[in-house]
Amino acid sequence: MIVAENLVKEFRVPERKPGLLGSLSTLFSREYRLVRAVSGVSFEIPAGVKAAYIGANGAGKSTTVKMLTGIMSPTSGRALVAGLEPYRERRRNAANIGVVFGQRSQLWWDLPVPDSFRILRRIHDIPDAVYRRNMALFRDLLDLDALGNTPVRQLSLGQRMRAEVAASLVHDPKVVFLDEPTVGLDLMLKEAVRRLVNHVNAELGTTVLLTSHDMGDITAICDRVLVVNHGEVVHRGTMHELLRTADTRAVVFEQQGERDHAIDLIEKGLDGASAQPLDGGRIKVEYPVARWTARQVMSFLLDHFEVTDCVAPEPDLEMVLRRIYAGQVVT
Amino acid sequence: MKRYTPFAAAGLQGLLQYRSTFLISAVTATTAVGVQVFLWRAVYAGRDSGLLGGYDLPTLTTYVLLAQILGLVQANRVDEEVSGEVQRGDIAVSLLRPVSYPAARFAAGLPVSLANATLVAVPVLALYAFLLPLTAPTWTGVLLFACSAALSLVIGFGVNLLVGLAGFVTTNIWGVRVVKDSVVAFFAGQVVPLALMPGPLAAVAHALPFQGMIDGPLRLLLGRYDGLLGAAGILAAQLGWALALTALAAVAWRAAVRRVEVLGG
């Protein structure tokens, strides 16, 4: 559904010299510096997949999304969304996609939310049945009616974002691009937005490309992950595979003995592992995968302590990403 | 076409949110007409002949009044809104709609003109018709004026869209708009009819598209043309400029989109 082949985007940025004299000199002569925001990104996202596009600030995420939505054309390479090159057939592509840019509004600033939806309905020529079905869904999940007839410019960020997400889905797009879709939402609403996206994906097979800094969004919505760093895809695969690239694992357990003593014992007995006290008397053990197997760690714990409770949490996505950004793991 | 009607409705609704703008427009237009009329009365009072460039006082009063009103109707806010979108970067979102942006803008600007025409122009016109002696136009004049005024809307839209798109080139769009407003008002004949301008200046004004916004329509209304051929000439010039500006705006829009595509939103 979404294909990127060697996408490259370079910008010419005017070079500014420091100081007043420098500023004056840019009035007369400008030197440009070439910035490569996206350098040869290739990936493919099949129809119906919910993919996360993750990267640190400045990794080239939004530039890539702009190329896929048709706002920007690549310097070289090619993109295909639902069979169209977005930047060549922008208007036809626009009919196929829905977009939420967390920072920008696609609603009519001076009009109440329901009016924006009526306009979108006409612009996209949405059949009555589809429109009614979707509006009922949005009303149910996002409580759109609560926004009333307030003009969009007077809504709070959270209220507006609900309407933005709904607006991106009202015409049953084949692909929806969500850029920070839960900015400014409280926990309940974040949950509602995630449910809505998942629902639409399950019912209609809508392909989702999500960029977010909210790890909760990514884990709740996405089944595929693309990690970009310095404009290149450095990891692709399922969420599970990404988490497995973590080079440490953790076990959290509860025991009946004295805690400081137990921590000492673990750090001495398991070379390279670290143990930290958690609240409620629990202890978190982190161990390097290269040195110890889960079996070895578990049997060590069972041998030495009266274990009353034990969980092995999934590796922390944030930690995995930090390592990838820092260039420690490249898969 | 069907896809653009909601833009028209939205444009009107957006405008109606700010009711005070109508009041302010009405006060501004009334004052401007009043000042100009009294200025011209003083000019006529100081002269022996009752004609100035072929206009007698009631005809010139009519001209000044209608020039103000046409100017008001052509103020469709397109320059303001386009440059605003460009500067805020919201133009990127507009590119994500499956419609032609210039056409959507035109659709959104048209009801603004119509609303100004009915809610502001008519009351101001009625007020001055009551206060001052005016020249009544002929039916032919009214008919020609209607065609001409429609073309003037297209010209006004083209000019405003081009100015709005200047937002891609400069951030000081406010300055550009102030200059545009005064240049357009002057060369359109909103301040002084082209017939009263000194020769070379009038020649410049006739060569520019702006005369088709006010002087052209009003000459047709007030019968100040040489026979049917002269009337056709005025309309043809307007049509030519309307087409040229539409083409120019289309080219400028394409260039602007390329700029977004290449430089980023």
Descriptive overview:
- The complex is a heterodimer of chains A (331) and B (265).
- Chain A has 331 residues and is of the alpha/beta class.
- Chain A folds into 2 domains: 2-9 and 43-243, P-loop containing nucleotide triphosphate hydrolases (Rossmann fold); 247-314, Alpha-Beta Plaits (2-Layer Sandwich).
- Chain A contains 12 helices and 13 strands.
- In chain A, strands 5-6-7-3-8-9 form a 6-stranded mixed beta sheet, with helices on both faces.
- In chain A, helix 5 packs antiparallel against helix 6 and helix 5 packs antiparallel against helix 7.
- The longest helix of chain A is centred in the middle third of the chain and has 18 residues, at 187-204.
- The mean pLDDT of chain A is 86.
- The radius of gyration of chain B is 19 Å and the shape is globular.
- Chain B has one domain.
- The mean pLDDT of chain B is 89.
- In chain B, helix 2 (20-45) packs antiparallel against helix 3 (57-74), helix 4 (78-88) packs parallel to helix 7 (139-165) and helix 7 (139-165) packs parallel to helix 11.
- The longest helix of chain B is centred in the last third of the chain and has 37 residues, at 227-263.
- Chain B has helices at 5-16, 20-45, 57-74, 78-88, 91-94, 101-131, 139-165, 173-188, 199-207, 215-221, 227-263.
- Chain B has 265 residues and is mostly helical.
Structural class by SSE content of chain A: alpha/beta
Order of helices and strands of chain A: EHEEHEHEHHHEHEHEEHEHEEHEH
State the major sheet of chain A. Answer: 6 strands, mixed
Give the N-terminus to C-terminus distance of chain B in angstroms: 28 Å
State the shape of chain B.
globular
Strand content of chain B: under 5%
Give the CATH class of the largest domain in chain A: Alpha Beta
Query: Roughly how much helix do the residues of chain A carry, as a percent range?
Result: 25-40%
Q: How many domains of chain B?
A: 1
CATH topology-level fold name of the largest domain in chain A: Rossmann fold
Mean pLDDT of chain A: 86
Helix segment count of chain A?
Answer: 12
Outline the low-pLDDT stretches of chain A: none
Q: Could you state the order of secondary-structure elements of chain B as H and E?
A: HHHHHHHHHHH
InterPro entries (chain B): ABC-2_transporter-like
Pfam family, one (chain B): ABC2_membrane_6
Protein name (chain B): ABC-2 family transporter protein
Keywords (chain B): Membrane, Transmembrane, Transmembrane helix
